[in-house]
Amino acid sequence: MIGVFAGLLLRALFVLTGAALATFALLWHAPGDPALAIAEARYGQNVSKEVLGFIRAESGFDDGFWTAFWAWLAPLMQGDFGQSSVNGRDVWPDLVTAMSYTFPLALVSLALGLAVSVPLALIATRRPGSWLDRGAVALASVGVAIPAFWLGLLLILLFAVQLGWLPAMGAETTTHSILPAMTLGFGVAASLTRIIRSGILEARGQPFLPAFTRRGVARRDIARDHVAPHAAVPVVTVLGLELAFLLEGLVVVEVIFARPGLGSFLVNAVFARDFPKVQAVVLLAAVIFVVVNLAIDLIYRSLDPRVSCRDA
Amino acid sequence: MRSVYVLVAVFALLALCGPMLAPHDPTAINIPNRLRPPGEEWLLGTDALGRDILSRLLHGARWSLGLAFIVSLLGLIIGTAIGLIAAQGGRVADWIAMRATDTFLAFPELIAAVVIAGVLGASTASLIFALTLTGWMRYARVARGIGLSVSNRGYVIRARLAGLSPLAIARWHYLPSLLPSLIVVWSGMLARAILGISTLGFLGFGVQPPMPEWGTMLLDARIHMRSTPLQMIWPGLCVVISVLTINLAGDALRDALAEQDAKT
User: Fold this and answer.
1) Which residues of B touch A (CB under 8 A)?
2) Is residue B198 scored above 80 in pLDDT?
């Protein structure tokens, strides 16, 4: 087990290094002079050649790609995300503020998604093929096809513009989070319902289940001890994809509802060509994504004993 | 189930011939007739610049669906090539190809696409580049997985011993086993690409105005949500219906293939 864990950890580290390299390479090759962008942001238009030269030397732009990459990566590994190239402020405190808006919303949406999808899938699979089951499947199929930004706009149109019940823009109070959480939660619920439903149906079809029934084990106990663990395996496998889906939805939802979270932070930074900020968010997203996937991999192994027998 | 395939054909036709059916020029500005409600002259009304919404939707099919087709096809080609190199090229090639795949999978696809398209400057070319670069990994994994299982079969080993080139083996011995699974993955990626294109368009990083891509249209319509809410409904409905159709067709295809597998 320790060997497997070390292998997975090594792979995660490798992937993160690659991700940092890919991020830096993209911004390195971006059109326009990065030194000029930084200088204009700090000192306004008409920057002198000396200032440009100073910034180039400071950021390591003169010494080629690898030196500049190292000049960026070394402080990063000590937790220094650098300064915004637009207003010169430290990136990290702003990033923390943005996270304080994003993470609670993400968790609430995930909880909302689970709270809807698990009971819905359980009710739907009680009698497969019934109208209830078909309804759940239809709802889930439509839900997966609705882009988050359109659903968000429709909810604003209904609850904020037409009915006037809920605020649409900003993040000052908890009521401001209701519509964004509904938007994200609906998407999560739709895709999870599909997966949990097919997971349960597949687990029910396992050939060892009739043996338990004939031995007189109660239906309830079979469901808890034998169907549930089986159905959990495909659900845990796709949780990583679900997280990606949630992060992507967050970007759009924060932009629509004007919430100052990570998504707005990223989109604004990209528009302003504030590369230190862009790099910080992209790497943060990659770290979250890789760490969560590592955790999922470990849970998966403990759920399905067959997987841990194979090599990592 | 067959009706789903018919619907897919309808959408494909719409993407190809939609512009011919459009009653008006989709980019012709007509300020006196701006924000008209649906009526005889303008079946779905006009937008804030007086452009006919129906014509814009019909032309938009070519952008939204056509670009999604190109992006997902490029991903299919690149991903399959990388997956086959991993399966056929020995341990070192396999290791490099799979770690590259892992690295690209380390970013949520759409977020990476936003950053790439935004940094390169919003244009159709950077949109295609961004979505292709973030959309090949699943094909690569599937191609490698099936490729590895095929590579131990007798006919592949014999072909290799007979001195067939790796390219010929890939073409005649790997691709036929790969194709069914790849098409199922492709249908999923096509749906994702439609969502990705409209999302990037909506964020302002995709197809640029005045071109009538569905997501870009929603960006315009959003401003006039209070006065003409219907304007916001149509483009979104187009996205949902096309994505839903492709997803259902993909499911039907997967079930049909599973049935075929079970028979043999």
Assistant:
1) 99-100, 102-104, 106-112, 114-116, 118-121, 191, 195, 198-199, 202-205, 215, 218, 222, 225-226, 229, 232, 236, 239-241, 243-244, 247-248
2) yes
Q: Chain-wide mean pLDDT for chain B?
A: 84
- B52 bridge partner residues: B46
CB A259 within 8 A of CB A101: yes
Separation of alpha carbons B215 and B61, rounded Å? 11
- Selecting from A16, A146, A285 the residue whose C-beta is nearest the C-beta of B240 gives A146
Whole-Å CA distances, A242 to A188, A239, B82, B108? 7, 5, 25, 10
- Check B119 against A273: CB less than 8 A apart: yes
Q: What pTM did the predictor assign?
A: 0.86
Tokens standing for A164? 């006037």
Please give the residue of chain A at the shortest CA–CA distance from B225. Answer: A157
With CA atoms as reference, the chain B residue closest to A287 would be B106
Residue type, B63: W
Residues of A in contact with B232 (CB under 8 A): 153-154, 157
Mean pLDDT by 10 residues, chain A (312 residues): 77 84 82 72 72 75 78 79 77 86 89 90 83 87 89 87 78 80 90 86 80 82 80 78 83 89 89 84 85 81 64 40
Contact A142 B225 (CB under 8 A): no
- Return the DSSP state at B27: T
Q: A11, B114: Cβ pair inside 8 Å? A: no
Report d(CA B63, CA B22) in Å as an integer: 14
The residues, any chain, with a CB within 8 Å of residue A74's CB and separated by 6 or more, are: none
CB contact at 8 A, B139 and B76? yes
ipTM of the complex as predicted:
0.81
Q: List pLDDT tens digits, range A84-140.
A: 777 778 888 888 888 888 888 888 998 999 899 888 888 888 887 788 888 888 888
Q: Which residues of B touch A282 (CB under 8 A)?
A: 107, 111-112, 115
What percent of chain A has pLDDT above 90?
3
3-state secondary structure labels for all residues of A169-226: CCCCCHHHHHHHHHHHHHHHHHHHHHHHHHHHHHHHCCCCHHHHHHCCCCHHHHHHHH
